[in-house]
């Protein structure tokens, strides 16, 4: 493949990370992770989609979501919930979790991170940290956010539970977890920023390893990247989005007939090649609107449209507003809202 298509997408959808909790456990324990949409406004304001992750720094445990068998976790493992599901992390399957509170998370959103929490003797004690040698298990937990609009085919291609065992993660992930524990305990200046970058790197590596482990009959955007023909077609469109591609030319370049490429592309990606190209052009245009000062007419040409009017029509059809209005909205400062109780939190959540 002539282009790193996964990196292309990740750059365009603004992947962001935030380490939020340092949790130490002793004895029997079970903790609830709320659905990410319930706390998104507190943990990653401004992100359209939020997912939670857990690094198992010490001990063993289990991760579970409704409708799926529990996943066993060991020291050095990482587990993510790409669709933002409510979940339970526990010392044994089936334990009733200590309920989490969206109100509490909103109330602590401006506190230094990661927030320490200790679980022992059936109690949950915010602000307390068990010594590493006294804890049966330690988790470093956080959130990852990204844009879904205008176009992000990656998230729907990921499973509800993404488990990265230590044996498959490589030595560097173990060092990342060790560094996360050190940053969580030492509270050095810049620690939050270090943990944010580490969590983003971890997500990218997890997505790559999930791609590497896909079965031969898998479908979806990631499986399409791996396919000899579909992956090359996607790479070509990413490499030259301003080119006047036709299905005939793409098929010739990848070595398939027009009809064979169309059928194979739809099988893997779920949409026709030209529809994918149109979506990708709008995604690129949105990134340029947000990150550059170029005018709309210039951006239209850069992403493959003959005129500003054609780009504006396509952008509004996909995003729901003209490019200039969308750009103004992106430049507005993020809103901050105090959450002091369940009614206030419900109002915040309804607006985010």
Description:
With 352 residues, the chain is an alpha+beta fold. It folds into two domains: 208 residues, no CATH class; 111 residues, Homeodomain-like (Arc Repressor Mutant, subunit A), CATH 1.10.10. It is 46% helix and 18% strand. The strands form two sheets. The chain has a seven-stranded mixed β-sheet with strand order 9-8-1-10-3-6-11. It has a four-stranded antiparallel β-sheet with strand order 2-7-4-5, with no helix packed on it. The protein is globular. The two termini are 39 Å apart. The relative contact order is 0.15. The C terminus is likely disordered.
What is shown here, in short?
The chain is an alpha+beta fold and 352 residues long. It has helices at residues 5-12, 36-43, 102-107, 154-157, 166-169, 171-186, 191-212, 221-226, 228-239, 247-254, 258-269, 273-291, 296-302, 308-319, 323-331, 342-351; strands at residues 16-25, 30-33, 49-58, 61-64, 71-73, 78-81, 87-90, 115-120, 123-126, 137-146, 162-164. The longest helix has 22 residues, at 191-212.
């Amino acid at each position: 493949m002539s282009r790193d298509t996964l990196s292309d997408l990740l750059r365009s959808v603004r992947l962001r990370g935030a380490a939020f909790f340092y949790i130490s456990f002793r004895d029997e324990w079970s903790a609830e992770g709320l659905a990410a949409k319930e706390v998104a406004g507190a943990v990653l304001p401004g992100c359209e989609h939020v997912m939670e992750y857990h690094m198992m720094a010490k001990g063993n445990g289990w991760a579970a979501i409704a409708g799926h068998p529990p996943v066993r976790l060991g020291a050095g493992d990482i587990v993510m919930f790409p669709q933002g599901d409510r979940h339970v992390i526990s010392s044994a399957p089936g334990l009733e979790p200590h309920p989490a509170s969206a109100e509490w998370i909103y109330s602590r959103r401006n506190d230094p991170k990661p927030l320490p929490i200790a679980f022992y003797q059936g109690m949950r004690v915010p602000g307390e940290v068990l010594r590493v040698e006294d804890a049966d298990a330690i988790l470093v937990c956080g959130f990852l956010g990204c844009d879904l609009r205008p176009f992000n085919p990656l998230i729907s291609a990921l499973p509800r539970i993404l488990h990265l065992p230590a044996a498959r993660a490589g030595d560097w992930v173990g060092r990342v977890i060790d560094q996360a524990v050190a940053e969580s305990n030492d509270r050095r200046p810049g620690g939050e920023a270090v943990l944010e970058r580490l969590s983003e790197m971890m997500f990218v590596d997890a997505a790559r390893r999930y791609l590497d482990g896909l079965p031969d009959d898998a479908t979806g955007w990631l499986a399409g990247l791996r396919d000899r023909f579909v992956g090359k077609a996607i790479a070509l469109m990413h490499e030259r989005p301003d080119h006047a591609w036709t299905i005939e030319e793409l098929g010739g370049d990848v070595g398939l007939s027009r009809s064979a490429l169309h059928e194979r592309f739809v099988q893997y990606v779920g949409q026709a090649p030209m529809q994918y190209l149109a979506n990708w052009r709008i995604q690129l245009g949105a990134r340029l609107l947000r990150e550059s000062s170029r005018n709309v007419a210039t951006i239209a040409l850069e992403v493959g449209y003959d005129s500003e009017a054609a780009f504006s029509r396509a952008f509004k059809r996909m995003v729901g507003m003209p490019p200039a209005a969308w750009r103004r909205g992106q430049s507005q400062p993020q809103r901050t809202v105090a959450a002091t109780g369940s009614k206030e939190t419900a109002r915040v959540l309804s607006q985010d």
